[in-house]
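Worked example

This section walks through a single chain of length 208. The input is the sequence exactly as stored; nothing has been trimmed or padded.
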Amino acid sequence: MSEVEKLGFESEVDEKGRIKITDEVQKAANIVPGSIVTIKMDPILDVDKKPVEIPANEPKHFEFIDKTDEEGRLKIPDLIEKAAHISSGYTVKATLEHVLGEEEKKTSTNKFQFMDKVDDDGRLKVPDMIKKAADMSPGDIVTIRLKHVLDIEKKPVEILVEDVDEFDFTAEVDDEGFIVIPENMRESVPILPGNVVTVKMELILDAE
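Given that input, the structure is written out below as tokens.
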């Protein structure tokens, strides 16, 4: 699926924190059970079906990657549920950003965005699904763009503007799939242990 063929749909979040890609979108995008899909979404209706009002200083969109089940459902990561204040009964508007086909090998990582909590060593864990989709191995070098930071209480510290070079960094993926945010960046933003950070992969260089 090319980057310009974006397909949109709406879905209600179920009791397990899942959304369902509509049958029409599944058919149009050739999605089958087990497809690895990148989704960009934002909440639009709360449990009372009232429009969701997102404060100006909070993230407007959330992106994640997951494997579809037999029904075409995807699990919203727990951190995104908390950061977006989403719960069962909410309705989200989603865009299909990418579908990883069987014939695709290592893909451009600008399709992959994730959220994680910073540990005591300033590290983030690359999700296993992204490592698989990007064919990522220990020793690979990744270029990362910092998108936004949430504090321990899940309130925005700062929304960083995209395409600002000083918030890019490179890191080596270790044996456990961790990357380290540079100490000078952690001090300048600032980023503290326990902060929830969203980053976007921009490039991968093979360890070989």
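What to look for: The first strand starts at residue 7 and ends at 12.
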